[in-house]
Amino acid sequence: MKKWEYSILKISMDLNDNDEIEVNNFGKEGWEIVSVTPITNSIVGGGSYTSSVIFTFKRELE
C-alpha cells in the first residue's frame, strides 16, 4: 500500500515572483498539488475578498 506525506503552503494575494518560484520548487522536490483552498475575509458593510490561498501538496514516501 502506498504511503503519502503532505505539506501546505499559504500564499497571500499580494502575489510576487517568489510565490511562483516557491510553488515550482515544491514540484521539483516531487510534490504534487492536490487542493487549492481560498481564504476569504468579510468586508464591513457586506461582501468579501480572498486574502490568501492555501496549497496542499502530497508526495509518496519512499
TrEMBL record:
Classification via Pfam families: DUF4177 (PF13783)
InterPro entries per record: YjzH-like
Name under which the protein is recorded: DUF4177 domain-containing protein
Organism encoding this protein: Anaerocolumna jejuensis DSM 15929
